[in-house]
């Protein structure tokens, strides 16, 4: 039984697709697409050299073009802040006078102890303040 070249290329494409699923490395998927292009080239009757050239060209083109675009999209996504990181930059209302030594604010519906970032600065009840950071259980505000 003689198997056509395009069938071997499709077997190779499936073989390259397996590590893609197991390792989540997109490069294997791009090589798999290159193998499918080699299979199409073989099915159209081109020789082995043309098949290998098409496989290599498509694979390299996909890796060179798609991978940097995917990396840019992945790195460009802002992370979702959770926990105390989500409180930084929020506004709060002063409940008890806040200075460099302490005070109380209402932040995200909860009462927090607070101190001013600049030890000389004071905030009176009712004033809006911005949370700069969280130091333990104390909000540092300005």
From TrEMBL:
- Which SUPFAM superfamilies does the UniProt record give? NfeD domain-like (SSF141322)
Query: Which keywords describe this protein according to UniProt?
Result: Membrane, Transmembrane, Transmembrane helix
**Which InterPro entries does this UniProt record tie to the protein?**
Membrane_assoc_protease, NA-bd_OB-fold, NfeD-like_C
Cited Pfam families: NfeD
What is the residue range of the signal peptide feature?
none
Please state the protein's primary subcellular location.
Answer: membrane
- Topology in the lipid bilayer: Multi-pass membrane protein
Q: Which GO terms describe its cellular component?
A: plasma membrane
Keyword Plastid attributed: no
User: Where, by residue number, does the polypeptide cross the bilayer?
Assistant: 6-22, 52-70
**Localization terms from the record:** Membrane
The residue ranges of the NfeD-like C-terminal domain are 85-141
This chain belongs to which protein, by name?
A: Membrane protein
Q: Which organism is it from?
A: Streptomyces purpureus
